[in-house]
Every structure is written in C-alpha cells, then in structure tokens.
Amino acid sequence: MTREAFITHVEREQEALRGFLLALCCGNKNDADDLAQDALVKAYLSSAGYQETGRFRSWLFRIAYNNFLNHKASQRVTESIDEARILAADASADSSFEHQTLYLALRTLPPKERSAITLYYLNGYSIREIAAITENSEDAVKKQLSRGRDKLKERLNDKR
C-alpha cells in the first residue's frame, strides 16, 4: 500500500476509529485518542502487509482492538456502576458525555465482552465481522454478546 493510499484510507476511517475506541474506553477521550494514535502508527508500520482483499476498516479496528486489550490488561474490571463512577472521576472521564451511564456500565464489563457489545451495537458489525476483528469464533462472539447484554441489563437496572 502506498503512503498516499494509506492516508486516504485513514482520512475516511479516522472518525469511526475514534468513535470505536471512545466507546471501548468508556468515554475517556484521552485514552481513546492515545490508543487511536498508537493504532494508526502500528497500521502504518505494517501497511505493506495489508491485503487489499479485506476491508481497511476491519483491519484497522483489529489493530485498535488488540491495542485496547493490551492497554486494558493491566487495569482491573469494576463490579458496579458506582465503583466505575469513582474510577472515571479519578481518570477524568468526560462526565458531560451524553451516554455517560452507559459508558459506566460498559466499564464494568470484561474487555472482550465490552468489545463485542461496542462493535455489534455501536458500530453495526455482524457477528462474523466481529469474529474476524477479535480473532474469535462466531460462537465465542455470541457468548460474549449474550453475557455482556445480561451484565449490562443487570447493572443498568440496578441504577433505576
């Protein structure tokens, strides 16, 4: 892939990438921007190996997803929305964000469930596409979606 072609692809997909990472980072713009920048650098460095047969967005999201997992591996998952709210305040998450309660609930999910929920519901990917991005089986994605939905429903109902 030429440098110009890469730039064209990135310009077209950059906003979607940032939105995806913002959801995974539960509204924390600083973390999302850092992960996006890191993903773009990694994508550029490996762009020679990109196969034009696939969708650039899926390829880029896979890099960003793996980046996210590596970043979150050292952080713990919270058990309740109240605990997530405390951590979010400490991490200076964007508290004015329109969907803050949802992001707080998403923060309570393990990274793989959060990713599946985000890709499926917020980005409109199919189960097959999510499986390709996350390098999981379709059955694993279905389980992650089911578990994630159940946990979100439970946690969001607790806040009513």
Query: Which percent bin holds the helix content?
Result: over 70%
What is the fold-level CATH name, i.e. the topology? Butyryl-CoA Dehydrogenase, subunit A, domain 3
Uncertain spans: 90-96
CATH C-level class is: Mainly Alpha
Q: Radius of gyration over alpha carbons?
A: 16 Å
CATH superfamily membership = PhyR, sigma-like (SL) domain
Q: State the end-to-end CA separation.
A: 51 Å
CATH architecture: Up-down Bundle
Give me the secondary-structure category.
mainly alpha
How would you characterize the largest beta sheet?
A: none
Task: Describe the 3D structure.
By secondary structure, the protein is mainly α. The protein has one domain (3-158): Up-down Bundle (Butyryl-CoA Dehydrogenase, subunit A, domain 3), CATH 1.20.140.160. Helix content is 72%, strand content 0%. It has helices at residues 3-24, 29-45, 56-72, 81-90, 100-107, 111-122, 127-134, 138-158. The radius of gyration is 16 Å and the shape is globular. The chain starts with a helix and ends with a helix. The model is unreliable at 90-96 (pLDDT under 50).
Features:
160 residues, mainly alpha, 0% strand, Butyryl-CoA Dehydrogenase, subunit A, domain 3, single chain
Write a short abstract of this structure.
With 160 residues, the protein is an all-alpha fold. Helix content is 72%, strand content 0%.
